[in-house]
Amino acid sequence: MTRIFETMMSDRDDDKPDGDVGVATKTRARTQRPPLYKVLLLNDDYTPMEFVVHILERFFGMTHAQAFELMLVVHKKGVAVVGVFSHEIAETKVAQVMDFARRHQHPLQCTMEKE
Ligand code: TYC
Fold it and tell me: Which residue in 31, 35, 70 sits closest to 49, CA to CA?
């Protein structure tokens, strides 16, 4: 009697009714990349070429050759992207360039736009 009772009341598979199999589910976590911003340098008729080259070396980590080449692109085309950054870094670069140009009394303009 004790033996039969134990067998009938066994709870080994109480949580799995007959025929019920587990279904594995996996949801892909949606990752969000922060938006990027282009920093643009604009041409003008007054800022000296060497000053622009210096800015590109100092604030955008370019070699003299890279900076000279990109300065010429701005000079000829009117505008060029000088870097792509997070919003906060782009804002800082624009502020650094504008502040430096202003302190040297050059009309150089630098802006940013969402990529
Ligand atoms: N056009 C300027 C000159 O002839 C040079 C220049 C280049 C100015 C790039 C601004 O973003 C600029 N002196």
Answer: 70
Q: Which pLDDT tens digit goes with each residue over 9-50?
A: 344 444 444 455 666 666 777 889 999 999 999 999 999 999
Q: Is the CB of 107 under 6 A from ligand 1?
A: no
What is the model's pLDDT at position 27? 75
Which residues in 12-41 are b (16+ Cβ under 10 Å) and which e?
eeeeeeeeeeeeeeeeeeeeeeeeebbbbb
- How many whole angstroms from 64 Cα to the centroid of ligand 1? 16
CA of 35 to the centre of ligand 1 (A): 29
Does the pLDDT at position 68 exceed 50?
yes
Phi, psi of 114 (to 5 degrees): -60, 135
Nearest atom in ligand 1 to the alpha carbon of residue 47 is 8
The CA-CA-CA angle for residues 36, 74, 112, to 5°, reads 25
